[in-house]
Amino acid sequence: MGFDFDTLKVQAGYRAQEHNNAVSVPIYQTAAFALGDSYRADRLFSFSDEDPIYTRLSNPTVDVLERRLAALHGAAGAIALASGMAAVSYALLNAAGKGGRILTTARLYGGTVDSFTSIFPDLGLEIDIVENPDDPAEFQKKLTADTKAIFIESLTNPFVTIPNLTAIADIAHAHGIPLLVDNTVATPYLLNPFEYGADVVVYSATKALSGHGNVIAGIVLESGKFDYGSGKFPQFAQPLWFLRDENDVERNVLQVFPSIPFTGRLRAVHLNYLGAALSPFDAYLVLLGLETLSERVEKQLANAKAVLAYLEGHPHVGWVRHPYVQGNPYRALADRYFPKGVGAILSFAFAGTEEQRRIFLAATKIFGYQANLGDARSLIINPAGTTHVELTYAQRELVGLTPDTIRLSFGLESAKDLIADLEQAFAAAFAG
Ligand SMILES: *Cc1c(COP(=O)(O)O)cnc(C)c1O
């Protein structure tokens, strides 16, 4: 290996010779794969042969995506899923096992926060929330004997805050548990969480990873370095009939997938039985988007900087939240973890009445009003009423989410046009 990110993102994990010399990754649009003879079937069903059997479990197109993302992260294993929520929920369930607790924060995607109360307790998984994630000592204080993982987002939405990854990773490891990082907003181009102690990284590939607003997809990756055989994770040591060998002897995940126990178990158990498989066509779309990740993110960063300069000091803007704003407390962490630049989103306070805010949101012509981010098109939204509506009022207070918060996600348009669009929308809102 040793290739740079930009080389890997268009070439890793694929050998044309193995696919009829097709230059573009073929879409293997098939549910099942011929088993050949029953001897081969025995090998396939006892995991001694790795060829695909059935697309819910694996598929050659999806496999290229998994290998490519693993290469981009220097990760041991990867698994693609049908959505970012599947990636988050399967990863948390996999780490927690029965009766486990996950230590996390309220600075998370709204759907993730809501899942903590609406579904996870039914599945035997409880959540503990660190109120001030800026203080790593608070993670230490909230650990219990049942805590099985710490889960954080590396760059948060909508306020672009940054956790101290290495400090939190050290706390997790001292307790014998893995650090799980949702790296969706950051993207692997700007940050590889594995370099700072993460053990598992998850993505909503729906966002900047695919980057064209045309697919729902999720990814889970593992470093391959964490020891799930320590006794703290009995679910990894439990023999499973599905993992039996050719002599019908049950085996556990650690025996069958010694180098990738986390994604191996996730595939054998969660993907297998809960079933959120990524379709080959959607894997193809993510692969296509991934080819331009660096170029897109660079343009989005440039647009973010230009609009930031426009918003700072604007008469109808209360505050702007982004590490590059004068006095923002996350600047040092941004410089440390994001040397290429940080975040293609920002939030600001709309300084006007609710009615003016509603006019403003309706008046943009280039910024699309929709619940997504990381798209090639620039987007605008009021998170308190939309993307983060699942947060309770107490949780909103914890993260500082007010009704006047407006979040921008930068696309690939001209910065001049983006600024002009905001200016005409402000003019429309304050016309009366
Ligand atoms: C969107 C998002 C998710 C959920 O992903 P889907 O692909 O919409 O299921 C999870 N985490 C973060 C940070 C997100 O932005």
Number of strands: 12
Radius of gyration, in Å, reads: 22 Å
Looking at CATH, which topology of the largest domain would you report?
Answer: Aspartate Aminotransferase, domain 2
What is the H-and-E element order?
Answer: HHHEHEHEHEHEHEEHHHHHEHEHEEHEH
User: How does the overall form come out from the CA principal axes?
Assistant: globular
Task: List segments where confidence is low: pLDDT < 50 over at least 5 consecutive residues.
Answer: none
**Which strand order do you get reading across the main beta sheet?**
1-7-6-5-4-2-3
Give the termini distance in whole angstroms.
Answer: 62 Å
What number of domains? 2
The assigned CATH architecture of the largest domain is 3-Layer(aba) Sandwich
What is the average per-residue confidence, as pLDDT, rounded to a whole number? 96
Count up the helices.
17
Strand content: 5-15%
Largest sheet: 7 strands, mixed
Task: Say which CATH homologous superfamily of the largest domain is assigned.
Answer: Type I PLP-dependent aspartate aminotransferase-like (Major domain)
Small-molecule components bound = pyridoxal-5'-phosphate
Structural class: alpha/beta
